[in-house]
Specification:
By secondary structure, this protein is of the alpha/beta class. The chain is 41% helix and 15% strand. The protein has a single domain (6-278), classed as TIM Barrel (Alpha-Beta Barrel). It has 9 helices and 8 strands. Strand 2, helix 2 and strand 3 form a beta-alpha-beta unit. It comes from Levilinea saccharolytica.
C-alpha cells in the first residue's frame, strides 16, 4: 500500500478569484501547502487579458518566479471552461475551433508554468439536439487536442461533471466510454468526488474499470452536491482516502472548495480543509532508498 501524505494535497486557486495572487500564495504558505492547481482566469492569469503573446508569457514567468520563491509548484493548469464561450462539443465549427485553440494555448501556458497537465471537460450539447451528436463532437475534439498534447509532452486530465453542468460526461460509465473512444495515452481521468456522489457512483469503480488511468482527484465535501470545506458535508472522505491508498494512488488530491459561500474568506476554507486532512495524513512520507 502506498501511503498518502500532505505532500499529495494541492489547492485550486479558483476560490481566490476575489483576491490578489499574492494573497493566494500567502494563504498557501500559512496553510503549509505547496502544490497548486492553477485556475487560468482573471484577475490572476488569463491570456486574453494581454495584447500580445509576449506580454502574456512575461506575466507567466513573473508568476512562476513568485511561486517557486516560496517553494511551491504548479501541478496542473485549469483554464476556465464551464461558461460561454468555451465548449469543445459546440455545434458551430467556428465555436469549436475557438475552443480548441483556447486549450492549445493552455497547454503552451502550462509548460511555461512548469506543469505538464491541463484540466479539461467534455463540453456540453444543445438540449434540443440528439445527445450522440454532441458526444461525437466532444470525442473528435478531444482526439484532436490529444494529438497536439502528445507532440507537446502534455497530458489532458478530464473529469465527470454534474448533470446541471453537462449532458455528456457525468458518470463512470461515460468516463470509460470517453477514454475508450478517444484512445489516447495523453487523456487521463480525474475523479471529482462531489460529481461522483451526485450520480451515485463509487470511487472503487473508477479504479476497477480504468486501471492506470485515474491520475488526479478533485477533493471536497458535499451533501452530496456542493464543493464544501472538508468536514462540512456528509461525504465519506476518510473512506475515500482509504480507497485511494488501497489502490496505490500516488497522485494529487486537489482541494476544490469553490462554492460561492467561501469567496469572501477563501483562506479559511483551505485552512480548515487542510486541518481536517492532517488528522488522517502525515506531513510527508519517507521515500524508500
Amino acid at each position: 500500500m502506498i501511503p498518502l501524505s500532505m505532500d499529495n494535497i494541492s489547492v485550486m486557486s479558483v476560490q481566490y478569484w476575489h483576491t490578489s495572487f499574492e494573497y493566494f500564495l500567502s494563504s498557501m504558505e500559512r496553510c503549509q501547502l505547496k502544490n497548486i492547481e492553477l485556475w487560468a482566469g482573471a484577475p490572476h492569469y488569463s491570456y486574453d487579458c494581454f495584447e500580445t503573446r509576449a506580454e502574456a508569457e512575461a506575466h507567466i514567468r513573473a508568476m512562476r518566479r513568485q511561486i517557486e520563491a516560496r517553494g511551491m509548484q504548479v501541478v496542473m493548469l485549469t483554464p476556465e471552461q464551464l461558461n460561454y464561450p468555451i465548449n469543445i462539443a459546440g455545434r458551430e465549427a467556428g465555436y469549436r475551433k475557438k475552443s480548441l485553440d483556447y486549450f492549445t494555448r493552455a497547454m503552451e501556458d502550462a509548460l511555461l508554468f512548469g506543469a505538464d497537465r491541463v484540466f479539461i471537460t467534455s463540453g456540453w450539447g444543445l438540449l434540443d439536439e440528439p445527445r450522440e451528436d454532441a458526444w461525437r463532437r466532444s470525442v473528435d475534439s478531444l482526439g484532436e487536442l490529444c494529438a497536439r498534447a502528445e507532440k507537446m509532452g502534455v497530458s489532458l486530465v478530464i473529469e465527470q461533471l454534474q448533470p446541471y453542468e453537462s449532458n455528456l460526461l457525468t458518470t463512470c460509465d461515460d468516463m470509460v466510454r470517453m477514454l475508450n473512444e478517444v484512445s489516447s495515452p495523453a487523456l487521463q481521468c480525474c475523479v471529482d468526488l462531489v460529481a461522483m456522489a451526485v450520480v451515485g457512483d463509487e470511487l472503487q469503480d473508477f479504479f476497477d474499470r480504468l486501471p492506470g488511468k485515474v491520475r488526479h482527484i478533485h477533493f471536497a465535501d458535499g451533501n452530496p452536491s456542493g464543493h464544501f470545506i472538508c468536514g462540512d458535508g456528509n461525504l465519506p472522505l476518510r473512506g475515500y482516502l482509504a480507497t485511494l491508498e488501497a489502490n496505490q494512488y500516488s497522485g494529487y488530491l486537489t482541494l476544490e472548495i469553490n462554492d460561492s459561500i467561501y469567496w469572501d474568506d477563501p483562506h479559511t476554507s483551505i485552512a480548515r480543509s487542510a486541518e481536517f486532512l492532517r488528522r488522517w495524513l502525515p506531513e510527508t512520507v519517507e521515500k524508500a532508498a
